Amino acid sequence: MLPLITTLVLVFATIPRCFSIWPIPRSFKSGNQILKLSNSFDISINFTDPPQDLLDAVTRTMAFIQTDQLGRLTVGRGSSDSDAFGSAQILNRLMLTLELDASAPQPIATEAVAALDARDESYSLSVQSDGSTGVVSANTTLGLLRGLSTFEQLWYTYNGTIYTNYAPVTIINDSPAYSFRGFMLDTARNFFSVSDIKRTLDAMYLVKINTFHWHITDSQSWPIQIDKFPELAQAGAYSANQSFTPEDIQDVVSYAGERGIDVLVEIDTPGHTAIIGASHPDYVACYLSDWVTFAGEPPAGQLRLADAAVANFTAEVLAAVAKTLPSTIFSTGGDEVDTACYAADGPTQTMLNETGRTLFEALDDFTATTHGTLHALGKTAVVWEEMVLEYNTTTLRNDTIVMVWISSDDAAAVVQKGYRIVHAPSNYFYLDCGAGEPLGNDPTGNSWCDPFKTWQESYTFDPLANISSDQVSLVLGGEQLLWTEQSGPENLDSIVWPRAASSAEVFWTGDTLPDGFDRVGNISEALPRLHDVRYRMVQRGIQAIRLQPEWCALRPQVCDA
Amino acid sequence: MLPLITTLVLVFATIPRCFSIWPIPRSFKSGNQILKLSNSFDISINFTDPPQDLLDAVTRTMAFIQTDQLGRLTVGRGSSDSDAFGSAQILNRLMLTLELDASAPQPIATEAVAALDARDESYSLSVQSDGSTGVVSANTTLGLLRGLSTFEQLWYTYNGTIYTNYAPVTIINDSPAYSFRGFMLDTARNFFSVSDIKRTLDAMYLVKINTFHWHITDSQSWPIQIDKFPELAQAGAYSANQSFTPEDIQDVVSYAGERGIDVLVEIDTPGHTAIIGASHPDYVACYLSDWVTFAGEPPAGQLRLADAAVANFTAEVLAAVAKTLPSTIFSTGGDEVDTACYAADGPTQTMLNETGRTLFEALDDFTATTHGTLHALGKTAVVWEEMVLEYNTTTLRNDTIVMVWISSDDAAAVVQKGYRIVHAPSNYFYLDCGAGEPLGNDPTGNSWCDPFKTWQESYTFDPLANISSDQVSLVLGGEQLLWTEQSGPENLDSIVWPRAASSAEVFWTGDTLPDGFDRVGNISEALPRLHDVRYRMVQRGIQAIRLQPEWCALRPQVCDA
Fold first, then answer.
1. pLDDT tens digits, residue range A413-435?
2. In A, which residues are within 8 Å of B523 by CB distance?
3. pLDDT for A551 beyond 50
């Protein structure tokens, strides 16, 4: 066995260590030369009429390179690199080039909301060690943006000198393994401001997460102001200061789009809607009744889905929001419909009896109404897994995207029904798990989805587990999620980052690292890079948590067991 | 059974709900009258020559009352209270009176570091609903400070009016059930700045925690600059910017003292000292050797305790720090001595053989040296439980204070040996548990002390479990602790607060609430008050986390199961 062991050790030694880039590009070659950044470094664009948001992205990248001021994570924080500063070459320029359509470049924000199967985030990057002009090339401005986020992560600062120690760097046609790489935030259990969301989008940009899944409403509050239905937020927001105006929504959408991020808004229906009862009590079953009996958590109340008027109202609400959004996808939720509530609700039972329908047949009609309205607006519906696996829905369009949340084990069943899926499994990706529970009188207070999902656990997720090879194309990607029963602006950064970067690499880099090793089981190689992106986030004002003592962060692999 | 149930419901209804005070005073009576605070409200002192730190405390209380701006946690955030504003009486003045020694009042900072059995934190408070002058009376300035922290928590703000809805409030001789109520921070695994510590002290003041246990050094870094031994921090701090100067230490001690907080510094020995090897390699066994074999976590290395020169050096280091501190207590640590390391260490084995001692006999000598030095400085030693339960130490002085950390089950055994204890059990009070582990290559990454310790779990701790009635006086109190392998300034507030307030009430209020109910099992009554102090912390710039959706926080008991 000795020769095999020796071979493994030697091969392991060739794994690039301490690279600063997260997610690691799918194709990646680098050296170990020092290359300094010129004091007059600039980023040029080699085509005419670049869109304003690309120019803005270049300005941000220039600023980040100056302000990141990240010391390399090694003992001495780069002092050993400085010996080579005198003889190192200097990079004066990075050139951005478009491979296709350079005559009519689209804004990043436009490319960012293209349909998932038409979105092109690929790019190539070359930074040689001789100081010659670096190049980022791509088919789209969105690809150029991805290249910029990679380029930013090459640079360290020591004693005022900005440099990389990885030159030359050659990345050929890096592109994501999966088209959907998301992060979900619930702004209903507790409220988050636009600035909280923007800071989150900044972090998402850094790790190439391309979808902000905005779970904007829930039973606890309705923080979105809709011109056509002002009563919903007036009665349902925690306060006027804790709601999003239409301008706030557009502000978030614009900010996201400029950073290559699509905004998937979710208005969860027909469950998780108690707060609608504050303005439309007739539309809500079990409103504020005993939640232990009629809801998964307080307060109880869900839309009277069997009522055609309620279905039409819901469709109008969804349409009023969806039509203001550039995204091609919109989520109607569909999780945790409480059948006990409807069974006990007189009006619902009367309507079901009058029309001779079962509850799920009525849900089918409700869904046909709401999804039909969205389809007419050009939107593809997104739903939670119960719509397919529990409610026997028959009217779902084939192109519906299904989010698998209850367990990763459910993914295969959804795919077998022919639907496209997004992995959002509670057992890997729920960031809120393991930190207690929000009920008031439980002396232990453990969470239903203990334990805490470590970055390591999330990182080992296999998107294709139990998926047959002919169904691989149905797996769109995945997302990590923050439900906010016990979170608010106070711990947003610390509970999300850097953990949510785990799935960013799972779904960008895929199963195989650029050196040919499997990603799963490669925690030890990943950790130094994750440290690097975490420290960079902190430099950018995102309060991402430590993963190890600094002693370990400065000594890659030394704190492995 | 019906009459019994009815009785219980009626009695339950008399439990004061939504009181804002944490910890709840041991004697407490209040009403439900609105009392407004005058625009010209002031706090007067009825004795001459009040110490400057009492005057400063009054200034801070005046400011907090203005700046807390806390809306009452009910639907409408106080709008229902405002109906009574017009007819409510107005409080113009609070008077601070000293019951004893009013002729020579001591500074708060002096009273705060009195020996534990001589410390007097008791106070009485009266705020009547007729607008007559309120009174806080106490035997000491420290007691007055405690009264001020209670007084501050009476006040809400609605639409510019500062008011309480609990008048009249009468608290007679509130005093802590236990003299030691602490919070421990590890500043060695990751570094925290003086401002991080001060912010933590602010939160501690609010909930009457009276001891800052500063675990200042550990194997990963030595962030304390000691004039006599500058090499320790020069080689052992993460960087010059990540170490505490003597002035920093005094700054923290002063800031704490003014807030009624004693600073218990710990220099952990003989284990947890690898970093001393960076400047004194000859003093450290197993320095940077295989940590899996020779240490509980990386890096390996602990003082060569069998060497008399090392014992003398250690005593000098401890003395150099201890002599600068006003506290009567100082911790020498003593946890997790790794016997495998010493067994494999040639110099240690040689010294043991030459002197004919076992390892633990040598540890006894080492302890006699270090503790003897501390005793000569007037300091009482504090140690971790292994010193008593595992190492068969015979030279410990009887007055040594022992911290029980491995398990709450170990408390009784320590008490049975006659030592005073501080409860610091990992199974109730470790704030870091349940959030992963710091090793680099574990694909699950669960923590050794899963699960997360919820505030509810901590709140149900019984300090006297398995303690016989004649040993009750040996139980000094307890503390919650943050070990910082995976924490830093980024998540300090959110991982500590409001959870660390749990033990503040456990050890101030004791087992019985002022209405006669048992504390344990009273989660439901405690939660609204904990919400209140959490929201107040946030108003004061401490990023304490949410415990429930705001919908629940505004509706006490409605989100109980």
1. 999 999 999 999 999 999 999 99
2. 440-443, 445
3. yes
Please identify among residues 15-44 of chain B the ones whose CB lies closer than 8 Å to any CB of chain A: none
> How far apart, in whole angstroms, are the C-alpha atoms of residue B512 and residue B535?
25
Structure tokens at A482: 């923050």
Q: Using the beta-carbon criterion (under 8 Å), do A443 and B452 form an inter-chain contact?
A: no
Determine, for residues A190 and B557 on separate chains, whether the beta-carbon distance falls below 8 Å. no
* Closest residue on chain A to B73 (Cα): A238
Quick check: B350 and B402 in contact, CB under 8 A? no
Q: Is the dihedral of CA B63, B66, B68, B72 positive or negative?
A: positive
Residue B526: closest CA among B541, B515, B540, B542 = B515
Helix axes A52-67, A141-152, angle to 10 degrees: 0
DSSP assignment of A314-342:
HHHHHHHHHTT---SEEEEE-----HHHH
HSE, side-chain direction, 13 A CA sphere, residue A405: 24
Residue pair A499/B554 in contact (Cβ under 8 Å)? The answer is no
Taking an 8 Å cut-off on Cβ atoms, the answer to whether A545 and B491 are in contact is: yes
Angle B376-B378-B379 from CA coordinates, rounded to 5°: 105
Structure-block tokens of residue A411: 């993914």
Q: Which amino acid is at A338?
A: D
Q: Is the dihedral of CA B531, B534, B539, B543 positive or negative?
A: negative
DSSP 8-state assignment for residue B170? E
For residue A517, name the pLDDT band (cuts at 50, 70, 90): confident
Sorted by sequence, the CB contacts under 8 Å of residue A510 that are 6+ apart come out as: A26, A177, A178, A519
Alpha carbon of residue B75 to chain centroid: 33
Alpha-carbon gap: B353 to the closest alpha carbon of chain A (Å): 33
In this prediction the ipTM stands at 0.95
Residue A284 forms beta bridges with which residues?
A: A303
pTM of the model: 0.96
Token match 């989008």: residue?
Answer: A201
Instruction: Give dist(CA B65, CA B36) in Å, integer.
Output: 12
Q: How far apart are CA B478 and CA B492, in angstroms?
A: 20
**H/E element, A95:** strand A89-98
pLDDT (tens digit per residue) in A14-53:
444 557 899 999 999 999 999 999 999 999 999 999 999 9
